[in-house]
Amino acid sequence: MSKPYAETKSKSIIYRSFDTDVDNSELVWHRDKKTRLVEVVDGKGWYFQSDNKLPIELKVGDVFTIQKETYHRILKGKTPLKVMIKELD
């Protein structure tokens, strides 16, 4: 199964982009093996949702942490989404 994003890595930073033509069924609930610090670089109308919480809109400049083994997903937006990710552990 292919990933719903394009990704490049530079040292300890992961650059990830999601296109607007991604199918909603590809944006699944999942858990990561490491805690991640995420910064929103570009995109409008995208949402982030953690397990048992309401979705929050992602805005350019937002920085947030996703704890390892926490279920989460993103919800499709209006423009391409670009994020920088740093794995913390």
Instruction: Determine the structural class based on helices, strands and strand pairing.
Output: mainly beta
Main CATH class: Mainly Beta
Give the percentage of residues in beta strands: 35-45%
How is the CATH topology named? Jelly Rolls
Helix amount: under 10%
Arithmetic mean of pLDDT:
95
Number of helices: 0
As an assembly, this protein is single chain
Verbal overview:
β4 (47-50) and β5 form a beta hairpin. The strands form 2 sheets. This protein has a 5-stranded antiparallel sheet with strand order 1-2-8-3-6, with no helix packed on it. Strands 5-4-7 form a 3-stranded antiparallel sheet, with no helix packed on it. The mean pLDDT is 95. The chain has one domain (6-87): Jelly Rolls (Sandwich), CATH 2.60.120.10. The radius of gyration is 12 Å and the shape is globular. The protein is mainly β and 89 residues long. The chain contains no helices and 8 strands. It has strands at 6-10, 13-18, 36-42, 47-50, 56-57, 63-66, 72-75, 81-87.
